[in-house]
Amino acid sequence: MDIRSTEAKDWMLLKKVRLTALLDTPTAFGVSYQTAANYSDEQWKERASSAGTEFWLAITEDKTVGMIGAVVSGANRYNLIGMWVEPTARGSGVATQLVEAVKSRAIGKGHDRVFLDVSPDNAKASNFYLKQGFSFIDEWEPLESHPHIMVQTMLWTIQN
Fold first, then answer.
1. Which SS3 state, helix, strand or coil, does residue 139 take?
2. What is residue 25's DSSP assignment?
3. Per-residue b or e along 57-73, where b marks 16 or more CB atoms closer than 10 Å to that residue's CB
4. What is the pLDDT of residues 28-56, one digit of tens each?
5. What distances in angstroms separate CA 136 from CA 29, 116, 126, one per listed residue?
6. CA 67 – CA 13 distance, rounded (Å)
């Protein structure tokens, strides 16, 4: 298993896995499939080049089986975003490796916390993040792509 940060040349891999993720679990992400499908090739190249948002891919046997992203918010919060693992690779440790990549990058950039948003109704994801040392905090907001779904913020701190 290779977990690696994307570069501009990886834009087609990122596009494919991101669109697959959005089709697989559309209510788990802040962007809709239609919005992402309409990104230009240049927008995908920019996303893959880690300009602003950083992405990592999980690649095994020349197949991309997962992705994760991270972005620093205007409030200087290091946010884990866009986590997805293909169904056949779930339970294999790929997700844990992806989360560890984000935690390591956060620490490397001087952050001692990582935030994420998840619907508490998504028990599988919530339980996974709890096992990774995240805990729920009392912050809620509507999911941008599906405003009827409320997501709650989870927090991991380096002290965990």
1. strand
2. -
3. bbbeeeebbbbbbbeee
4. 999 999 999 999 999 999 999 977 899 99
5. 18, 9, 9
6. 10
Query: Whose structure tokens read 């028990």?
Result: 123
Domains of the chain: 2-157 (3.40.630.30)
Token pair 């884990």 in the structure block, residue: 80
What is the average pLDDT score of the chain?
95
Q: What is the 3-state secondary structure (H, E, C) of 93-111?
A: CHHHHHHHHHHHHHHHCCC
Going by C-alpha positions, the residue among 112, 151, 153, 154 that lies closest to residue 28 is: 151
Radius of gyration, alpha carbons of the chain: 15
Q: Which residue has the tokens 């912050």?
A: 139
Q: Two tokens at 30?
A: 């802040």
- Give the pair of three-digit tokens for residue 111: 């952050």
Burial class of 84 by CB neighbour count within 10 A (0 to 12, 13 to 18, 19+): buried
pLDDT tens, residue by residue, 93-108: 999 999 999 999 999 9
Amino acid letter, 119: S
| Under 8 Å between Cβ of 132 and 101 | no
